[in-house]
């Protein structure tokens, strides 16, 4: 049967047109006064649609719309909100000097709002906050992703507490997303070759304040069934579907931006899923600029940015050689590469044909700028990927860190924001990373801050009870079992929350190791404790599902009286209630397996105190003035011992410090010391772990330098990258014949501070010239094992040449006391290199 489709939109009265504009821009998601308009429109429809503004508007009767258009109160509020929205859209752009063309930010998922379910967890939350912050700052940045027909799964528990998954269909015509059309009004689409098949994809746009997110969708009639399924589910399907999704994201994403007329200056790969974009950028420049692969590679190397999020090798995306051959044989030939050379781009050991093709390795090889997402994760990442630069000391592996942050106005509750806006002033909205503005918290009275927090705890308890009742109804519960939902938790009890993905390494069940001790904590009549758990296990993660089941069974233990709860289907709405209404945010990963984590940052900005293992962001954020650490950053080889030690430390902290501190009240009933810590957490962590600080660091440290480097390389018909490619070819050809013949230094082992130590080095250059190399003394303090720590380079100068040997001279100053050392090394030298740390091109004496 041939079906003819058409779309129907709401018939909005002209006076309410601003409401339709607000419904289709996710600026609404971090402006609660705009949300209130839709709640006033139809509160029941707002909740029934899972807080979807576009669908809510479509469900409201024509009579109700006409009624509101004639309501002076509603229209006055709409006018006020819309004026703020217009003022926001027209604010000046970024003042930091980042030029156009755009930064193209690629991610597999985006957590922007519950009404747009194209996210699963922390990676998506970060991507969403990145886009929102780019909008706030006025950065020339667009997002690129995929439009999933089913998104990530919805979670529900069977009567035994075992996780089940459902995959509801997304109705994009009733969501805050619009299909992009061409000048004829037809859907704009692109095609991507996937092996022997050509796949067509439509382009959709999501407006995020002043930024745009473009999403690709293969679920169109032009594609056969198998190709329509490419964008069916987030992280769904087999390995073949995964590689097709990543081809669509990387290759298709670049083609989509070109079809939109958007010129990409810098491409940012958020995790390795989109790394094929680097190949597509090279291919397109080869075609348009009549360049070789190596020339185009050098032109684009400084214009690619890669952020890694995974601290374990197994978590990095890899594809077998067979799967790569199926999809990239013709593509590699089009790049002018042999199959061996093409596969080497994704291998640490380029000659190892048994090694799979790793997307992280591809991204690292083709990006001059790479970063991890916390200080500790930076160290872990340099260790993980040091094999790409085996000649470099660990500290020099070119992977820096920019610690994640959170979009404050998306995650601080509207009740707390009302208080902060009033006390901190208008600067707080536009400069949430300004520590000086946060210092104004000291002007907030203890009573007002704590009463605001207590209000959020009350709302959290109400939200949990309502959702528990729905869970029990769905399971067929009646009578007293159903009534138990109404009595679960207490709005006056110390509330601990654990909400995150349920993977074994996150140890959600660490508190259950000594159940009797935990029960005593929960049921203490004078100082009771209650705990909320929430989170999803991956559909194929049976260990994670079993942990959920274990918690659910424990929660039903006799005598606990609803003091421990598992909340189904954790999403952005639940997260907002939890990070604002809890008292303590619990995090217990096995160090160092958490790259960053951002939920604790969101909690801290709301005045919630963190109790966490020193992993990820907490390893650099912790201070006993505003939180607690489980352990001191130890790393264990025995997981069982680690669980035993850290569970006991966790119980001790709760029993001896946290619970007594919360219930220690003054005559006014306020926990004075607890409130002091709340203020300290908000003041220090709220500013330090803001996504505004994060994005300003990206812009100043990476985006702006990348723009400048790319702009310089693109001048004069890409003259410099052509020269650079020829230089590197000559350098690689002559590298094996380089020889450090002799190093001459005085025969002394002790010097006094300030003395100059003369050094002479003789180097046989072969066919290379002194201008091709940097000859350096790598110097610094020696460790107990004789390694140079935090070394720096002192470049030597050529002083003469004889029989093919060049002599270099210089001096080293004894700057401070202690055991110091140096080594001689050779590095590439070319003005067009973004940095000299190229795999295989470091030679030590």
What does this structure look like?
- By secondary structure, this protein is of the alpha/beta class.
- It has 4 domains: 14-89, no CATH class; 102-404 and 698-713, Rossmann fold (3-Layer(aba) Sandwich), CATH 3.40.50.2000; 434-687, Glycogen Phosphorylase B (Rossmann fold), CATH 3.40.50.2000; 736-844, Immunoglobulin-like (Sandwich).
- Helix 11 packs across helix 30 (715-735), helix 24 (572-581) crosses helix 25 and helix 25 (599-605) crosses helix 28.
- The model has no long low-confidence stretch (mean pLDDT 94).
Output the keywords.
single chain, alpha/beta, Rossmann fold, ten-stranded mixed sheet, six-stranded parallel sheet, 28 strands
Biggest sheet character: 10 strands, mixed
Helix vs. strand class: alpha/beta
- The beta-strand count equals 28
- Helical content class: 40-55%
What secondary-structure arrangement, pairings included, does this model have?
Elements (H helix, E strand, L loop, with lengths): L16 H7 L8 H10 L1 H6 L4 H7 L2 H8 L2 H18 L12 E5 L15 H16 L3 E6 L7 E4 L5 E4 L11 E2 L9 E6 L2 E12 L2 E7 L7 H4 L10 H21 L4 E7 L5 H14 L3 H8 L3 E4 L10 E2 L1 H14 L4 H6 L12 E2 H7 L3 E4 L2 H10 L15 E2 L6 H4 L2 H11 L2 H4 L4 H4 L7 H29 L4 H5 L10 E6 L15 H9 L5 E6 L7 H14 L8 E4 L4 H10 L2 E4 L11 H7 L3 E5 L4 H4 L5 E4 L8 H25 L8 H17 L2 H23 L1 H21 L3 E6 L11 E9 L8 E10 L5 E8 L1 E6 L2 E9 L6 E9 L14 E2 L1
Parallel strand pairs: 1-2, 1-9, 2-8, 9-10, 10-13, 13-14, 15-16, 15-18, 16-17, 18-19, 19-20
Antiparallel strand pairs: 3-4, 5-7, 6-7, 7-8, 11-12, 21-22, 22-26, 23-24, 23-27, 25-26, 27-28
Helix pairs in contact: 2-6, 9-10, 10-11, 11-30, 20-24, 24-25, 25-28
